Amino acid sequence: MLDILRASLRTGRVTESYPRQPEEGTCLRGRPWIDPSSCHACGACAAVCPSGAITLDSSTHTVRRWQLDLAKCVFCGLCEEACPHGALAMTNDFELASRTRRDLVVGLTHGPQIAGGSGQAAPASVEQQPAPAGMGVQVKGLRRRIQSRLRRSLHIRHMAAGSDNSTDWEISALLNPIYDVQRLGIDFVASPRHADLLLVTGAVTRHLEPALHATYEAMPAPQLVVAAGDEACGGGVLHGSYAVAGGVDRCLPVDVYIPGDPPRPQALIQGLLVALDRLEPKTRRAELTAAPGKP
Q: What does the pLDDT read at residue 3?
C-alpha cells in the first residue's frame, strides 16, 4: 500500500484538462482543410479518396462542385498528396461533432464565367447545405428536453453494431485516469434501461440491426442517440455494401454525429458534451475559410 501511495505522489495528476482548456500542440491528424483560391476542381483528390468522402460534380461545363463529406472521411491524407495545386492540407482539428448530418457536408462551387467576357471563372465559394425549415425549432426543443431530463449528468449505453473496434478502443479510454469522463458527470451503464444515451459504433450490420432497434426501444426517454466514428456517421469505407445499413441514421434518429476514423477521446468528449447541451458544435463554414492548422 505504501508503494502505491509513493508511486501516486511521484506521478502526480495525469488527467487532462480538456474541455476546460483547449488542447494545443497536438501532432494527431484531424480533418482536411481546403483553400478555395487554390482549388481547380480537377478531381485528383476525389479519384484517390478510399471512402468516397470527396466527390466532384462536373455534369456541366460552366459549374463544377467539389464536395467533402466529413461523415465518411477517414483522415488518411491521400487527398493532400494527390492535389497538384496544393489546395488541400490535413489539420489537427478534431472538434467535429454536429447535431445534423448536413452540417458535416461542405463544398466548393466553381461558378460560370464572369459577365463581360473576361474568360476568368468566378471565384470558388465555400458552401454548406441549408438547414430545412423547422430545424431551429427542433434543436431548441431538443435542448429543452435535455435540460429538463438530464440536467448535467449522462448515462451511456455503448453498442458496437459491426465496428472495426478502433472507435471502441477510444471509447474505453474515456474511463482511464487520463481522460476520466466521470469527472464531467458522464458514466457508462450495462443496461439500456438505465441509459439516457445510446452511443453506437459501426456501420450497423444487417445481423445486428434488430439488436440495435431492441436496445433503443428498451431505453427510457429522451432516448438520445450518438453516432461515433466514420462508419456510424456515414458508412465509411463500408458504405454501399450489401451487408451494412450504411450508418446509424439509416436505422435510428441520430442526435449528434462524431466523425473520425477513429475519433480521438477528446473528440468523443466534445460530442458527448454537445449531446448534453454543455458545448456548442463548431461551424464548418467558418473553419474551412480559416488558416489551416499544422499536422
A: 78
286: exposed, middle or buried (C-beta count within 10 Å: 0-12, 13-18, 19+)? Answer: exposed
**What is the identity of the amino acid at 168?**
D
pLDDT tens per residue, range 222-271? 899 999 999 999 988 888 889 999 899 999 999 999 999 899 999 999 99
Is 248 within 8 Å of 261 (Cβ atoms)? Answer: no
> Residue 111 burial by CB count (10 A; 0-12/13-18/19+): exposed, middle or buried?
middle
Check if the beta carbon of residue 267 is closer than 8 Å to that of residue 258.
Answer: yes
CB count in 10 Å sphere of residue 115: 7
Interatomic CA distance for residues 166 and 264, integer angstroms: 10
Distance between CA atoms of residues 85 and 73, nearest Å: 21
pLDDT tens string 129-147:
444 444 444 445 544 554 5
Q: Give the model confidence (pLDDT) of 264-290 as tens digits.
A: 999 999 999 888 876 667 655 434 433
The residues, ordered by sequence, that sit 6+ positions from 214 with a Cβ below 8 Å of its Cβ are none
* Domains present along the chain, CATH in parentheses: 32-95+102-129 (3.30.70.3270), 135-275 (3.40.50.12280)
Beta bridge partners of 154: 186
Burial grade of 274 (CB within 10 A; 0-12, 13-18, 19 or more): buried
Mean pLDDT of 57-62: 70
Cα(217)–Cα(148) distance, integer angstroms: 21
CA–CA distance from 186 to each of 121, 273, 278 (Å)? 51, 9, 12
Here the contacts of 109-114 (C-beta below 8 Å, separation 24 or greater) are 109/63, 109/64, 109/65, 109/66, 110/39, 110/41, 110/63, 110/64, 110/65, 110/66, 111/62, 111/63, 112/62, 112/63, 113/62
